[in-house]
Amino acid sequence: MDDLLVVEHLTKVYARGDVLALDDVSFSVKRGEFLVVIGLSGSGKSTLLRCINRLIEPTAGRVLFDGIDVTTASAKELREVRRQMAMIFQQFNLVKRSSVLTNVLSGRLGYISPWLTAAHRFPRSDIQAALANLERVGIPEQAYKRADELSGGQQQRVGIARALMQGPQLLMADEPVASLDPATANSIFRYLEEINHQEGVTVLCSLHFLSLARRYGTRILALKDGKIVFEGLPVEIDEIRFKEIYGEDAEEVEIR
Amino acid sequence: MEERYYAGFMKKRPQFMSSLLETRKRVTVFLVDVVAILYVWLTASYCLTMLFLHGEGVAGLPWWAIIVAVEATALWENLGVSIGMKLLRVRLVAKDSGSPTLVRRLVRFLVWHVSGLPLIGILAMSGGLAWHDRASGLRVVRSEEVSRVRRPLYAQSWFIAVALLVLASIATAMLVTGVNFRAFFSGAGKTARIWAAFLRPDWSILGDGIRLLLVTIFMAFMATFFGVVLAVPLSFAAARNLTGGWIGRPVYFLVRTTMSIIRSIEPIIWAIIFIVWIKVGAFPGVLALFVHSVADLTKLYSERLESIDPGPVEAIRATGATQLQVILHGIVPQIVNPFLSFTLYRWDINVRMATIIGIVGGGGIGERLYQYTSLWSWSKAGTMMLLIMLTVWVMDYGSARLRERLS
Amino acid sequence: MEKTRKRSRSARPHRIWCALGDLKPRAFALLLDWASWGYVAYGVIYLLNHYWYKVHVNYYGTLTVPSWGWLPIVLGTFELAVLGQAAGQSLGLSLFGLKLLTTARDYPRPAARLGRFLWWHVSALSFPIQSVRLVQGKSLLHDGMSGTCMFALKEVKQDIPVRKPRRWYFSFRGLVGIGLIAFTFWVGWLTTKIDLGMLFGRASRSVYLWKDLVRPSFEHFATIDPRVGDTFWGATILGGLIQSIYMALLATLLGGVIALPLSFLGARNIMGFNALGWIVYTVTRAFFNVFRSIESILWGVVFAVWVGFGAFAGVLALTIHTIAALGKLYSEQVESIDPGPLEAIAATGARRWQVVLYGVVPQVVPSFLAFSLYRWDINVRMSTVIALVGGGGIGQILFYYKNAVGLIKNSWNQVGAVVVCIVVVVWALDYISARVRERIT
Predict the structure, then answer these.
(1) What's the total number of domains in chain C?
(2) pTM for this one?
(3) Is the Cβ of A140 closer than 8 Å to some Cβ of chain B?
(4) Which ipTM was obtained for this model?
């Protein structure tokens, strides 16, 4: 199948406060694509990503991953699906007090026998793979440091290394560079692009900087108040479309 | 601690000073290790003789134990990582950044007997290196957090030592306190009746209980009230950053020390002292709680005072305000909320203490409860316990909510 | 009272019927008000007893209630509570974050308040009808008829008109607060029978006590005193100290080990959000609260009966309190962890307990250790006095000598020696545990 991910009529309502976070969102992602979701804060980007791997339960709709229905999957099936979907986060979400190596190895938790992980014994091959991944993202010497001793950019790279350990088909990134400076943000996206081109991993990324979306994305999806307002190529976003997405008062600021 | 003091006081540390710092740390490491080894030996021998000689355990060590311990410590520190080294974060590295080899370690161990043991080597330290350091080419350095491959936890000798320490302590504790599983299980039947009686409270004494409970709460209130009134001024005297000069320093030490001593004596012990002074009743209970509260509150308040933000204080002083105004407008606004929070915390504790201080005659509900339990009237005791539980729980909840609001 | 009207919204519905929403805070607020007025009534009766009836209330007597009896007092305090709420000045309302406003979100006029007060009685008497209205989703009678409603302060904060603030100690609340404290002080002084005259008058008679206390006699520091007992642990000061420390150690270890799994059961973010998990959470939390309220000493009596007098009973007594106290501290810590890493680990496809082991545990280990050390400190203090009810430890010697005053020649000196040793040990442990805790966190 060409479509790795199909989202059908996804809706999420928060009962407390009657907030409609996602409103009948439907789209599909082909294998090998680099899909960027843009929109203002609160437009539903994070909710969308988390509904896809069911960190948040959607209220209605269906998510099909590689033919498997994620929304009705049992706990075991869900775990297997999640193994195939890796995720990196805006706040990096590393276990601060654990070492970098342990954080990266925790990406394999879905694959290794539970008894081994209870005793903190990871197979030698996994440890070597972890070190190799750390080298790939450029920080092999930080392996034994505590995770909170690293800078922001380095921590996000640890997050990427953790995602790589899963050998995923889909890599989801929830505003991965929102807390980083522009230069570091660019370097993180270069890694994502590398992974997308070399390993053929499909990337689904949410952003609020249009410039990065234009530079790295193969397709753009724009959300506003939980609805899709634009779906197409990056070049198609002209000023009118821009104001549609971001609102009347928005102006584009180039960040080089 | 020393670094802080020296860094502000002297910009450049003289050579002699820095080698003294190192010496103190190394001697501390050594002492910690020797004590740990002796402790494990002592407790292990006690346990073994108790268990296998069925009698009074021999709680002592032969005279040559200390020699063996010293030797073992030296060997341990040189060949691996000891408890003291782990706790105070020092490590042995080679001068020319390699891994210390076994040969070098043994050399260091042997030379140590000449230079470390008789303390000559330590006093002859120049540049922080003793003879055994020079001879073996190894250095003692502060260890950063782990930056090389970690061996499995169980292979590290300090971990084994800690495990032994803990096991020895548990075994000794069980023997010293007379843990007796047979009594535990055979007595269970007896106490089942007691628990059943607790759950069937005798409601006839409810009025009595409520009245005593009110007395108890008032006791706690008076103790806390007077405690706060006295502790606030005392805490200013006990704060290091607010007392200085030739009159401030001695006052600081005096107040700090006195309060620590008073704090170490439980209110119940204070109560028995005060009951001898004044007759039995609620008043000595209030006094006992008051004395302890002052000490505890002074400590808490003064610690908070020591960590205030000096910025606003500086700013107000710069406007030309008097000392009193500086305190009122610079310090007080910062500390009102934390002080209230501590007061509520102390109030909680005082309520609990007040419930039990009656046992020695301090008035309140504890007295009656103790009477009932001595007479084995468990139902009545159950009523009192229920009242105590309810009150303390409500007070706890209320003060937790208030403290949330304050911060 | 100057009211500056500032409306922040241009369009506002004219009449919003009073959404019932949370009945719980309103009920609790009323109960709290009733209780506080009841307390004031108690204080007034006590003062009446003391000054007017001239009855000296001691433990074995009862309060003389005014001749009308209890019922008018109960009803009167309740009325006062309702009145206070209608007037808008109430402790319960402020503590539970409620505010009485008109449905148009303005301060009600006195007539409306009075109307609310009167209609409240009608509501109370027609209580079944009101419940039906509740179920139907309509507002209560006294809300609707007076045009006022009890709002949650958070929601309406921006809408209410701004009043000019006065200094806090002149405001009504400030004055009432100070008044209450003064009132409590007065009643408390009488209740606890504080008598400064007795304190200073008997000072001269008790000088012998202080003279002996500060000249400690270490006669039986390490040698057994046959009058007290025949074991090293029970009859020497050194033995008693060692026994107390070991008692505390054992109690803390045992308590910590048991509290550890329980604390996860009592943490809201672990227990999941299904019905069973919530029940387990509530039961565990209730268990912690209940057993935390009773101090270890009181359990000592029960355990002295169970396993006999001695240090073992003390250990068990300390353990029960420790389990509850540590359980509460641990579970609060578990509830306050950063959920981000948990999310991340769950997203890799790990099982629930793996998320706990790799995400939760590393975050809480240092605090757990710190809490355990803190608890050990407290347990050592408790173990010094738990001999009073039959636990062992150094209290045994302490209380023996204290009771033997007058019978033995230098008993107060011995007591002084014991107190000195206790101070040294407790102080040292306090210092060490504070330093180690600093290091850990």
Answers:
(1) 2
(2) 0.79
(3) no
(4) 0.83
